[in-house]
Amino acid sequence: MTNSETILRAVHINKSFSDPVHVQVLQDINMSVSRGEFVSITGKSGCGKSTLLYILSTLDTDFTGDLFIDCQPMRGLSEKQLAKVRNEKIGFVFQFHYLLNEFSVLENVMLPALKLNLHTEEEIREHALRKLEILGIKSLADKKANKISGGEKQRVAIARALINNPSIIMCDEPTGNLDKTNSLLVFELFKEITENEGLTLMVVTHDQEFANRTHRIIEMEDGKIL
Amino acid sequence: MNIRLLVRIAFSLLLARWKQSLVAAIGVTFSITMFIALLAFMTGLNDLLDGLILNRTPHIRLFNEIKPNNLQPINHDSLFSKKYNFIRSVKAGNSRQEIYNSQIIIKTLWQDKRIQGVAPKITAQVFFNEGKVNITGIINGIDVEAESRLFSFTDYVVEGNAIDLKNVNNSIILGKGLAEKLLANIGDVVQVTTANQQQFSLKVIGYFQSGLVDIDKVQSFASLSTTQKIVGKPSHYITDIQVRLHDLNAAPSLAKEYAQLFETDAEDIQTANAQFETGSFVRSLISYAVGITLLIVAGFGIYNILNMMIYEKMDSIAILKATGFSGRDVNRIFMVIAVSIGLFGGVIGLGFGFLFSVLIDQIPFNTASLPTITTYPVNYSITFYLIGAVFSIVTTWLAGWAPAQKASKVDPVVIIRGK
Prior knowledge:
In chain A, 36% of the residues lie in helices and 27% in strands. Chain A has helices spanning 49-56, 79-89, 105-116, 121-134, 150-162, 180-197, 208-212; strands spanning 6-17, 23-34, 38-43, 64-69, 72-73, 90-93, 168-172, 200-204, 216-221, 224-225. The mean pLDDT of chain B is 86. Chain A binds chain B through residues 50, 54, 57, 59-60, 79-80, 83-84, 86-88, 92, 94-96, 98-103, 111-112, 114-117, 160, 172, and chain B through 2, 5, 9, 12-13, 15-16, 315-316, 318-329, 412-413, 416-417, 419.
């Protein structure tokens, strides 16, 4: 398991709230994700699956245990360093699209890459257009983000997650706000990405149907992995 | 760090809420405009009022005061030198008002680099005869050219030509109030009687108006030689030497130096007119206080608008942080917004402030006591503009600081999970 192909590894992760009463949200979570895997985390509402995702994605730092992304320990990194890790290695797709309405679709996709600042703006524009093409929404590039449909917005969000070629893409209920057709479309896109581009995907969902079609299902209950 | 990207994001947020941003900027513009206009006007007025006295007052005046001699004969006697001597009813002896060696003193003063100019003067008490009535007055014997150059004498000669004082024999310029009392028109001849009962006829060639009515009722001006004739003294007779310095603040120390060097009395302008500085200072203080209060109010406007913007843009902040922008980046974005509002509003405010000053400068302002002034006085000092610019940036920076800090502390997990 601990070979170079391991993208993400969690060791003895615990999280609890003590306010107002002591609640153990996560109990001794140990797991790892390898490159190219399409993993889903399922479970009932309140089982801690989203909490786990936010811990694994470094957004939530209030936990005990160890987390490695690309074999690099996340413990003890500063807020700024974690932001850089997320920028470089993690792509996010949430239930809500979180596009910036002030920007065009293309700019929304370009933003994380502009922040990373590895390529010139021209190159980044090229990359962003290619991602939009893969997702079949190249024609929307110059539209304002609030002028497109819900399904389209989610695809733009996926393009944004892909722009920096991250090691892993983390999704929290990516199809939660979408109808059947769009859900299917998004799933197919994810599958294509993992198979064709060799990306790693971790999806939190309560949509059993969606989960069943992923490579691996991690099922959770009461803060534990079953 | 790619500041350019942060600025780009900041401007997008700013323009997305351009109406609110504009209102905030207008707040800054308004306060800076008022700040500049207020200070320009106040300082203009200050300069005018101070100038009323200061421009015409020598920085140092050398003269001989009539007073009893400190060294009485008994002090010279060695017999009494160890004793305590009481002398009653001491009178001023034959002390003269004249300054001894005045020509040499003037020559020495001209060589002093700290001095801008020297003007000799004679003051003579006279009576102006108007029928049966005698009106007391003072004739100032002046060197017209020096007096004009150093103390803007010509500015206050409202009718007639000041230089005629030198060109016309036995001529006099009367204070406006004095001329009215004497019913003397230009070209008329007035009779004066000196303290020594000598009578003189002097031709009125102009009126003088200082702005201070009491002065105009008693003062008049004649040339040095005319005055010397009136008082019956030779041509080296001078009672006052007026000195104008390059640096006004050096007056007290130089006065002491000259008093010792020339063995005369020396009075500096600060001692003679202490109240003016206090007045100017208080007026400036009030203007600054009002200006800064306005800016602080504008600062609160910016604070409010940024706070609102942050609540509106919580989602954007959350996703920026999730996709790799650090708290510091977010902080900078909002600081850029705040300072841009301040900069934009400030620059326009400086422009409007200037226009406003120009406008005030056009308003007619005629008063009998200020003959040289026709419009409201305005000071266009660059200092106000610099202070205004600095203050607009500083206030908006401070106003933006708390909201930006708040934005940088937004926890993306709370926002994203809250949906």
